[in-house]
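[Structure tokenization] protein backbone as discrete codes
[Encoding] learned vocabulary of local backbone shapes
[Protein] chain in single-letter code, fold in tokens
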Amino acid sequence: YPKCRILIIAASERQENYLIEKVRESLGKGYKYRSRALKTFLPLKNGTDILKYPVGRAGIYVEGLSSVDFLIADEAIHIGQDVWDSILPMLSEPHSRGLGWVTILSNTKGEPKGYFWECFNNPNFEKVWISAEDCPHLSKEFLSQEKERLSDLDYRRIYLGEFVESSYKYFGKEIIDEI
């Protein structure tokens, strides 16, 4: 999609930096940008701009960006509602043109709540769930060792990408229901 604006956000600047570096790697060392590329801005030859903005806890540092054609949010379970409230309006105008797409990446660590959890349960979002056991580049031996080292619940949360109730509640639903 030429002449688009792509925004990369994450719960931490470290993760944003990681993603934009992955974009640089995929373009290759010899890629000639339209103008000077910065740590926070990649101007592609086709007129597309890739931006990385710090969002903090409230999203105030990204407010004022008029529109975003593609939003990529990493570690979305840790991005607060105030950030989403600042960013989602930027998708409205591109959405009228058939864009305004959101890609949300995250692990399942933490309580299932907020915008990430809403999207996870929203039938309008396509879900791609990847277990570490399905990744051919991960060592089966390593995963086997981790399965022995961790509790079943921790292994399921960390490596299988499951929302495990005990990781965010002191008492499980079964115990509460018995009372």
